[in-house]
Sequence to fold (904 residues):
Amino acid sequence: MQFELTKEYIENLKELIELNKEDVIKQSLVDLHSADIADILEVLNTKEAMSVYLLLEGDTASDVLLEIPVDDRRRFLAQFPSDVIARQYIEFMDSDDAVDVISELPDDKKEEVIAYIDDEEQAEDITELLSYDEDSAGGIMAAELVAVNENWSVQICLKEIGRQAEDIDEIYYVYVVSDNEKLKGVLSLKKLIQYPTQTLISNIYNKEVISIETHGAREDVAQMMEKYDLVALPVVDNEGHLKGRITIDDVVDIIREEAEKDYQMMSGITGDVELSDSVLSITKVRLPWLLIGLVGGILGAFVISGNEGALERIPNMVFFIPLIGAMAGNVGVQSSSIVVQGLASGANDFQSLTGKLFKELGVALIVAFVLASLILIFNLMFNFAGSDGNLAYIVSFSLFIVVIFASLFGTFIPLFLNRLKVDPALATGPFITTMNDIFGLLVYMLIAQFLF
Amino acid sequence: MQFELTKEYIENLKELIELNKEDVIKQSLVDLHSADIADILEVLNTKEAMSVYLLLEGDTASDVLLEIPVDDRRRFLAQFPSDVIARQYIEFMDSDDAVDVISELPDDKKEEVIAYIDDEEQAEDITELLSYDEDSAGGIMAAELVAVNENWSVQICLKEIGRQAEDIDEIYYVYVVSDNEKLKGVLSLKKLIQYPTQTLISNIYNKEVISIETHGAREDVAQMMEKYDLVALPVVDNEGHLKGRITIDDVVDIIREEAEKDYQMMSGITGDVELSDSVLSITKVRLPWLLIGLVGGILGAFVISGNEGALERIPNMVFFIPLIGAMAGNVGVQSSSIVVQGLASGANDFQSLTGKLFKELGVALIVAFVLASLILIFNLMFNFAGSDGNLAYIVSFSLFIVVIFASLFGTFIPLFLNRLKVDPALATGPFITTMNDIFGLLVYMLIAQFLF
Fold:
């Protein structure tokens, strides 16, 4: 039932391309979903992909264009003049998709393409949508929707829906508006089908409609649609006029992207990459954080060399340098990631900053006590510290302090970043981990130097 | 428009509860969405929450029950006898939600509750759904859907839909089946509205329907619905009979959960926690991986003490112990997380394992060369190594080897785990990072010991 992309399929297709069998290729693609065709294009080289792409009909071609990765799309579109882009591709798209594609074009080409759009209403919609911040509700909404007047009857509505729905893939909800286009409520198609045709819309629509303003943040869009289980969210301007709607497929993309961003931040990668990308592009997203790690390592070297006295007096201290550093890093990442997940889910907790830090202190005290005790028992039992009698106590005491500090630091930093409107996930990245490492080392050295 | 939960609201509500003002409380909740009521209950204590919950009407009460976290739901339901659970809550739920709630009950209560369900069809549906693996398509689907026969006319369909849709919140798609209930295609409500009433369904339905079998994995459900932008996915048995459908809100939950699982794995947390959870439950999910980190630190101590000869000969080696360990860990996590993200997105790449490792080797060679050169320049310029002339070369050479090893290891392990059907995200967790740390240390020590 579902198409499966196999190595054989691709080899066969490459042969057909080689032999220029356009009709056979066309025939083999006709039953495929645009997402599958996009997958096929992705494993072909650019020349092969282009020759297959040019065989697609307008509607399918524009759907496929929307499914391929941004970079490929840019490369594809660079090959076409503005009028072809407008008339063969943009014309078949919903306004939100059209806006995405147009905003990826070079600046001079943007206006040219818009000028070539023959459907004036579509051109206007696109120009308006382009004016919104792309991370706001206005920037991700589509202008296409089905709206009916509150004073109409079911019969007029059904007729009107049939007309308006021609341009729209999926209806989901019918929005009810007042005479001056203000959003009043929502109506399900189910209800329209169930009620007699002479029923007035005003008697059957649901007034409890959840909407967002055009300047709302895209994270809020995702949170609202997820929380209230919506498949479409209407967008209004600050006077309540209905401007567009956001559908669930966009939200799924937002959720996926936000999760990937946080994930990449924690793994020290600065952008989207896949295993199939080139060696250079993978290197480019990996080097920056590694360089920061390198600087951190050099700072660590300074911390140790600056406290050489302690090491000369207690040479076996060196054994536990990796342990102290690693534990500081691990504890800090745990603390930060719990905060980051909490902030991302938008959970309401009414705990003050001090309240949060006090709770974290509670957790940290238990964790620090358990870890410090275990390493003390180990050191005393196996006499690992050798002749440095105090080392066992230095290690445990340092670990205790370091765990508590890293916990509080790891909790505080993302909350602090969030207040500064900086992405709190930054706190889970290598920068803070590196700082925790170095600080842990410093604590260890200073305790050995001055307390024992 | 949207309800906002404030501290004042909660304080006011707590006072009303204290004063037993049931009518006022009821009135204040009547316009709220069940998700908002659930949020309110979550910040009250158990006794307060229960007294508010008991004021809710059947339909709202069962919606709210579905919105509160699993633990709270379990605690709530423990207070009710089986017949109340069946008749006041389960009765109002879709079969997939009912199954979720029932499977959370203690074993002896499960059958009791099912026996008390008055609607025989619902009881049958629930019993069937409970028989599927909860991580399979069958385990997450709902039995409620709207299906029409391919031989009917639009008019009969509309009537039939009105009847069937009574139990269903949202229709999304109408499924077309043959006389023996096999899934044939799909029909949008939009089309039903647009075509004349005497049109035959067989002439207008879409035969390219995407479906999944009951035993399909839930990750596949999410991937398919995301890829093909579906809001509902029909589920069939292995003979093609239509058994149920999965809606997009479940998929959003799956995507969120999978992302959180991967995120927690990387941050070294073994379960779901929020900042608002108790100190003990937060401690419980954090300690396990920290203990593994502790064992890793102890192994690190053994590696250093086992190679003390090198340290005695080149004492300044100690400066770079943190650097080597941290870089090994950072590089390894980067490599693993790229693989894990690739596997999670189900991207098709046809690269063999050897191909992937070769590409990673390319990246690793560049990264290792850059990092090793930079640290060499630093050491030579600042003469940080002091009198140990060779140390600069030992550090750079070790870093070079360690980066390459950690890259390959970090790429190989998740691919290997995936082949063993173990969650590849395990590779991004503290266990592998700790192993990379220790291995890095060992390489550093051995190179100093034997090569210089």
About this structure: The first strand of chain B starts at residue 147 and ends at 149. Chain B touches chain A through 119 residues (CB under 8 Å). The radius of gyration of chain B is 30 Å.
